[in-house]
Every structure is written in structure tokens, then in C-alpha cells.
């Protein structure tokens, strides 16, 4: 099909129900998924520990997977999965340098996960210690002019860590004033850049002096994270600052339904990844539709979903940052919102592709067993498919 994607060999949805009368995926299919999860997990464990500490490609990512399996798979192994999550956090928690502060690629990830895992294991003091260390970073996050606003390394990545703890442990667990200050810092930064550059939309951001637009380094991820804060005092700001900025992004889409990676990008309509392209933008459009009720966002999301179906079986591999599993989360997001089984069917077909892991001639990532580049992310996606209505893209969707 192209130098980046395989031709999609699956017929599209024919209207036949994917679900049983009880509204579940058929048990034989769920059994197949569980078997593949066990098989791939055994390969990950046999490969040994990661030689990196981050959520993105390191030990904290392995901990994220085990925490997820504790919730989704269980099978009498809930406590075991939590202990394995904790074991994978020990080195990240003990070797922090306080230089990188985001969830995926910094200290905020291990600390947020530590707060959650310790709490679930009944170790309240250690949980609180992790939270206090995490909250203590906020002044640097707010005041450091060199810190970007994007998700992988920036302020919204730190914001996700706070919001994740609030989701898992309760809204009162995190100081809401800190969340408000981080949000305001992100908004102030975006308004300054927009004003300095004479932009027509109120918020603009850059990473390494380039205006990225996708979910990892760009506007789609920043706006998506801001909309997930869900604080009533923030609603008017969403309408006056975030909405018109998303409206600007609507004008940037390719005719195919895909979305550019950055302003002035020379790559054109090529990248169909969560990090750059429609698979990341779709989450922003769907949440914008839920937040503002404007049909144009839902139509844009449908366009994203169609191009992902056509061009989303990636030769890069099966991971979640730039692989088939990450692209499949777009269909799960569409299904959760619309309840249209076409999108669940598409997610299942991408899962079928992932279940044939390693047979398609895909490239091998630098970190082949990691959460965002490799096999751990694929396992995470397959586990989410056990209960599609509760699926969430890791380290991104709350």
C-alpha cells in the first residue's frame, strides 16, 4: 500500500453485531485475547528488565502495564500484578534527578504510579510520600521558562500525572490549587506565543522551535489534556481559548481525513501515528465534541477514523506511539462515544493483526518490549479490549 503501512486485508464492517446479547464480546474471542496476553507477557518477562526508568520505554512503563493488568485481567493475580508493578518502580523511584518532570519521560511518571500502587497495596505513608514529592515539582513546572508545554516532556505531561492520581485515588487526594496553577501556566504560555507571532487563534505552542500539531509534542495533545481537567471554573476558559484554537486546527486537515504533523511540514500526508497524525487528533476532536457539542468535531473524528482504517496497519510495528495498537485506540474512542459497533469491529480487526505479532515483517523498535514502542503497549491494548467501554489510551486518556 505504501512505504509506511500495509494494505488493510480486512473487509469493513457489514452491519452484523459484534457483541453478544449481553453486550459483551463473545467469550471465545475473549479467551483468545487472554491467551495472547499471557503469551506476549511471558515474552516480555523473559526479556528481563528495561534499562531505562521512564514510562515511555522503561521500567515505569512496565509498571504501568502491570497496574493495568491488575485492573483489566485479574484472574486471581491482582495482588501479584501490583507487586510486579511495585518491583518495576523501585529503580525509577530511587534514581530520580529532578531534571525531567513529565509523566511519560520524567520523574512525574514513577511518582504518580508509586502513589497509586502503594495506595492500592495499603501502604498509605509511602503513597503520600510519592504524592508530596510529585507536588513539590509544581513550582519548577510553572516557573521554568525552558520547559515546553507538550505531553512527552512538558507541562501537560506533568498535569496528566496529577489528574491520573485524582482519577485513581479521588479528587481530594491532589491539591486542586496546584492543578489550577499548572493549567494557567500552560494557558499563559500559549497566549504569549500566539500574541508574539500575531496568530489569529488564541493559543500556540512549539517544541524545539517547531510548531508540532500532534498528540505527543503538539497542539492536539495539549488541548486534549486541558479539556480533561473538567473543572467547572475552567469552562469559560475552554470556550474562549481552547475551542477557537481547535477550530483553527480543523482548517489544517488533509483532504484524506489525516492531519499534519507540524506547521509547514515537508512530509505531507504520510504519518498516521498516535504521535503525529489522525490517531492522536481524533481524541482531541471527540473530547471537543463532548465538551462543546459541535457536530463538526464529530465529523472530523469520523474522517480520522476512516483514514486510520485504511492506512493504520503500520510497518513500524505493533506499539502504541507509532504502531497498530496505538492506532486501534482511535476506534475504541469512537466506539465509546458513538456506541457504533463498526468501530469496535475495526478495533477487533486491528487486534487480530496484533495477535499475529511478528509475522508481518514489521520493523523492530529500539526498545522492543517497552510500553510505548514495543510489546508491552500491545499487551496493554489487548487487555483494554476485554472491556472496550472502559478502555483508555495509556498515559494520555483519563
Topology:
Elements: H1 27-46, H2 59-72, H3 78-94, H4 108-120, H5 124-136, H6 138-143, H7 155-169, H8 176-196, H9 219-227, H10 235-250, H11 278-292, H12 295-311, H13 324-338, H14 341-355, H15 375-384
Helix pairs in contact: 1-15, 2-3, 2-4, 2-15, 3-4, 4-5, 4-7, 7-8, 7-9, 9-10, 9-11, 11-12, 11-13, 12-13, 13-14, 13-15
Describe the protein's architecture and organization:
The structure is a single chain. The chain is mainly α. Helix content is 54%, strand content 0%. The protein contains 15 helices and no strands.
> Biggest sheet: strands, sense, closure?
none
Based on helices, strands and strand pairing, what is the structural class?
mainly alpha
How large a portion of the residues is in β-strands, by DSSP E? under 5%
**Terminal CA distance:** 34 Å
Which stretches are poorly predicted, pLDDT < 50 over at least 5 residues? none
Using the alpha-carbon principal axes, give the shape. Answer: globular
Overall mean pLDDT stands at: 96
Rg is 20 Å
User: What is the element string, with H for helices and E for strands?
Assistant: HHHHHHHHHHHHHHH
DSSP, total strands: 0
Give the number of helices. 15
The share of residues in helices is 40-55%
The gist of it:
The protein is mostly helical. It has 15 helices and no strands.
List keywords for this structure.
mainly alpha; 398 residues
Amino acid at each position: 500500500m505504501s512505504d509506511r503501512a500495509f494494505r488493510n486485508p480486512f473487509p469493513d464492517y457489514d452491519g452484523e453485531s459484534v457483541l453478544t446479547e449481553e453486550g459483551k464480546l463473545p467469550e471465545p474471542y475473549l479467551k483468545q485475547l487472554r491467551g495472547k496476553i499471557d503469551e506476549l507477557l511471558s515474552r516480555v518477562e523473559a526479556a528481563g528488565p528495561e534499562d531505562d526508568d521512564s514510562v515511555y520505554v522503561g521500567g515505569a512503563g512496565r509498571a504501568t502495564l502491570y497496574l493495568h493488568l491488575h485492573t483489566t485481567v485479574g484472574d486471581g493475580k491482582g495482588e501479584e500484578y501490583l507487586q510486579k508493578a511495585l518491583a518495576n518502580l523501585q529503580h525509577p523511584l530511587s534514581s530520580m534527578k529532578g531534571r525531567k518532570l513529565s509523566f511519560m519521560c520524567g520523574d512525574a511518571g514513577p511518582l504518580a504510579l508509586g502513589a497509586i500502587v502503594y495506595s492500592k497495596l495499603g501502604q498509605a505513608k509511602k503513597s503520600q510520600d510519592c504524592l508530596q514529592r510529585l507536588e513539590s515539582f509544581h513550582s519548577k513546572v510553572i516557573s521554568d521558562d525552558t520547559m515546553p508545554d507538550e505531553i512527552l516532556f512538558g507541562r501537560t505531561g506533568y498535569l496528566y500525572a496529577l489528574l491520573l492520581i485524582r482519577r485513581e485515588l479521588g479528587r481530594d487526594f491532589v491539591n486542586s490549587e496546584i492543578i489550577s496553577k499548572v493549567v494557567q501556566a500552560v494557558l499563559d504560555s500559549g497566549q504569549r506565543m500566539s500574541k508574539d507571532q500575531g496568530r489569529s487563534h488564541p493559543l500556540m505552542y512549539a517544541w524545539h522551535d517547531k510548531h508540532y500539531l500532534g498528540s505527543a509534542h503538539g497542539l492536539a495533545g495539549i488541548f486534549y489534556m486541558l479539556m480533561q481537567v473538567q473543572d467547572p471554573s475552567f469552562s469559560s476558559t475552554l470556550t474562549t481559548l481552547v475551542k477557537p484554537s481547535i477550530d483553527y486546527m480543523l482548517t489544517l486537515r488533509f483532504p484524506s481525513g489525516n492531519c499534519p504533523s507540524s506547521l509547514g511540514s515537508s512530509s505531507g500526508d504520510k504519518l498516521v501515528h498516535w504521535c503525529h497524525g489522525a490517531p492522536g487528533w481524533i481524541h482531541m476532536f471527540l473530547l471537543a465534541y463532548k465538551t462543546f457539542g459541535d457536530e463538526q468535531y464529530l465529523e472530523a473524528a469520523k474522517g480520522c477514523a476512516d483514514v486510520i482504517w485504511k492506512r493504520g496497519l503500520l510497518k513500524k510495528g505493533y506499539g502504541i506511539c507509532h504502531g497498530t495498537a496505538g492506532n486501534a485506540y482511535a476506534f475504541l474512542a469512537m466506539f465509546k462515544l458513538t456506541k457504533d459497533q463498526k468501530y469496535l469491529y475495526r478495533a477487533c480487526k486491528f487486534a487480530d493483526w496484533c495477535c499475529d505479532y511478528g509475522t508481518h515483517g514489521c520493523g523492530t523498535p529500539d526498545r522492543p518490549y517497552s510500553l510505548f514502542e514495543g510489546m508491552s503497549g500491545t499487551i496493554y491494548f489487548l487487555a483494554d479490549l476485554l472491556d472496550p467501554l472502559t478502555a483508555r489510551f495509556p498515559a494520555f486518556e483519563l
